[in-house]
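Section handout 9: paired folding examples.
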Amino acid sequence: MELREWAKRILTADTLEEKLLCPDNLTDNCPGAPLLFNEPTRPPGMGFNKRSKEEKLPPFQTHDSSDNRAICLHRFAGHELLAVEIMAHALTAFPDAPKAFRKGVAHTLYFIRKSPGFAIGPPITMTCHDDLSW
């Protein structure tokens, strides 16, 4: 799969499974013209919300509550998804960036999915291969 297509897929997918897809092989032969997005498409319930002061993250000392831990996890997961989308946007917005930079961004996107601490259980399973071809 072309790196540009993968990045576009991340930015336009409306399901988490599609956003987290890891192609077996990537090439960067056709980076195309700059492609800008106002904001990425998000799955239902994962849109961008401006939070009030009352909606701050629960204080650390209240994390013994499973509800408060769930709130934190939900927000952190959204933050990590945004990081993936920002990297994908860098790939579509700057097709003339040096190949080494683009390859580094692609490797980072793969690493995020391969990180031992980053796992989503059923129904989502993330398994990726680190055999990028350039």
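Moving on to protein 2 of 2.
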Amino acid sequence: MNHSEPVFRDPTPPRPLITPELASEFDSEHPFFKLVIRQSHFQGMHVPRQFTEQHIQEFEGTATLRYSGRSWPVKLLRYKQDTRGYFSAGWAAFARETPLRVGNACVFELIDRVNVVFKVSIFNNGGEDQIHID
């Protein structure tokens, strides 16, 4: 090979979007929060402090998670010290009965503030046919 000749390469093919990038494209008229699922989230899940302060304030009780035409009652607890929320009782059933996996990005849309109902969208990087958006 003559080193003075330029080397031409095929253009780099577009890479598939990774899970958090898929969720970053999400937009809604409702307030929402996003997170990437970790193994620890299968026992319970924290709701971000800023989200609870702005949109849920004093609520503590049973929230509803909706996904793919089904609903799950989930206990939503509030930490008094730092105002975070926490999905507890019912969350494990939701995680088990949906295609939720470690590495998925989830979007939780608060579609009913009075009754605290979240519409859940689950994104994964397994291909377009495996991305679940309700």
